[in-house]
Amino acid sequence: MVGAAVRLRVWGELDMATCPLLQAALAEQWSDGRAVELDLSEVEFMDVAGLRVLLDAQEEASRRSRTYAVLPTIPTAVGRVLEATGTGTALRLLGD
User: pTM for this structure?
Assistant: First the structure.
């Protein structure tokens, strides 16, 4: 399904221990040529390692000329990290 959008749903914690799983899932989508929509609505905790994965994914999508967006339903746990680091406007939200 080259070119078809895929939605990745992330839940629980997005931290040093779980980031490799998201990185692997994203890498698989890039190799398939898919656009990626990331649903973080069920993330209960995120640290800067999680933020780094989100920002790196956006850079990788741009480098590969792929579409990548985060669904606009941002949970408090993610919003806190974005606000504390001043990166809230750096992520492309679906619909932007």
Answer: 0.88
Which neighbouring-strand residues pair with 51? none
**With DSSP H G I counted as helix, E B as strand and the rest as coil, what are the percentages for the chain, rounded to 5?**
40, 25, 30
Quick: pLDDT tens for 39-52.
999 999 999 999 99
- One-letter amino acid for residue 79 of the chain: G
Distance, CA of 45 to CA of 54 (rounded, Å): 14
Contact 91, 82 (CB under 8 A): yes
Q: Which class would CATH give 5-85?
A: alpha beta
DSSP E strand stretches across the chain: 5-14, 35-46, 68-70
Q: Which residues contact residue 28 at a Cβ distance below 8 angstroms, ignoring those fewer than 6 apart?
A: none
